[in-house]
Amino acid sequence: MLVLNEVETRKALAFDGLIDALAKMFASECVAPPRHHHDVAVPGEADATLLLMPAWLPGRYVGLKMVSVFPGNGARGLPSIYGSYLLSSGVTGELLAVIDGGELTARRTAAASALASRYLSRSDASTLLVCGTGRLSANLIEAHRTVRPIKHVLVWGRDAEKARPIALRAEALGLKADVVTDLAEAAGRADIISCATLSSKPLIHGAWLRPGTHLDLIGAYKPTMRESDDDAVQRSDIFVDTRAGALSEAGDLLQPMAAGIIGAVDIRADLADLVSGRHPGRSSPDTMTLFKSVGASLEDLAGAIFALESHSLQPDGEG
User: Fold this and answer.
1) Which NCBIfam families match (predicted)?
2) CATH architecture of 2-104+299-317
3) CA torsion through residues 242, 244, 250, 251, sign
4) Which stretches of the chain are DSSP H helices?
């Protein structure tokens, strides 16, 4: 059985191969039931949460991501979120791999954004604005750089000091990188804007954006959260990772839908439509595109299979 820690998982999930693995999975017959959500009592503290996210390819693999969220861990000096991915044979049920869930999630999420960017951003997109300074930010830079000729990265965060390490990570990739404090000005210069924040109010305003901009929205994952305003949504061609997920969780879309500004029919396509060729993606160089991602268990399964199979091809199984 293969066991990969955080560092080994990162090494096993190179973005060029991972993006292709996600494309194949979105075009496959993967079964991805709704996630299971359970409240777990912790005596004397706020309830914890247990999340179970299954997916399987019939006759090939069965996967399950288990994530726990313990709010009280902050007082213990521990992370509040832990996660692991269990990958089993789809023929015998034998456990084949245990993979670090946090790193898998971060890299497959960034890979999904890059996969969407293949179809939705301009092919000459060279300036990337990243909003947010969490774990995803550096992954998003590397992933977008894999599919587009990114040369300049702008990093914005509510705390500029936290943005500096992200800029340094971009420079280590050979890119020009700047920390920015004027978000409106930076958004007006960017070809791709990738947001990975926990914002409950719009960060990106449609009035700031040039024709041809691609807006990649990742962080706001609840109906009460959003990273874009109504104008940005209304001006853009809208795409999502999965329709079911977006229509149940994506505040960036659900809030303007509730206001009657857009409807479900305004979602042009999801990733399955794009990778299968049912929708061509970007329609013109001046079109503004918006991709809303809330995550899908089939992405985790794709990453876990890729990690297992790529690891098995290395000499002596070395990571």
Assistant:
1) PRK06141.1 (NF004793)
2) 2-Layer Sandwich (3.30)
3) positive
4) 6-12, 15-26, 101-120, 135-147, 160-172, 183-189, 230-235, 243-249, 251-258, 271-276, 297-312
CA 100 distance to own-chain centroid: 16
Domain boundaries, the chain: 2-104+299-317, 110-296
What is the per-residue pLDDT for 283? 94
Full DSSP string of 12-77: H--HHHHHHHHHHHHTTT-B-PPPEEEEE--TTSPPEEEEEEEEEETTTEEEEEEEEE-GGGGGGT
pLDDT score for 315? 55
pTM summary value: 0.93
> CA 270, CA 272: separation in Å to the nearest integer?
5
> In whole angstroms, what is the distance from residue 204 CA to residue 206 CA?
7
Q: Which residues contact 179 (CB under 8 A, 6 or more apart)?
A: 155, 156, 157, 160, 163, 164, 167
pLDDT at residue number 178: 98
Q: pLDDT tens, 126-171?
A: 999 999 998 899 999 999 999 999 999 999 999 999 999 999 999 9
Q: Tell me the torsion sign for CA atoms 304, 305, 306, 307.
A: positive
The CA distance from 81 to 55, in Å, is: 21
Instruction: Report residues of the chain scoring pLDDT below 50.
Output: 317-319
**99 forms bridges with which residues in the sheet?**
4, 85
CA atoms in the 13 A half-sphere facing the CB of 166 = 30
- Asked whether 312 and 96 are in contact (CB, 8 A), the reply is no
Strands 36-40 and 2-4: unpaired
Q: Specify the 3-state DSSP secondary structure of 99.
A: strand
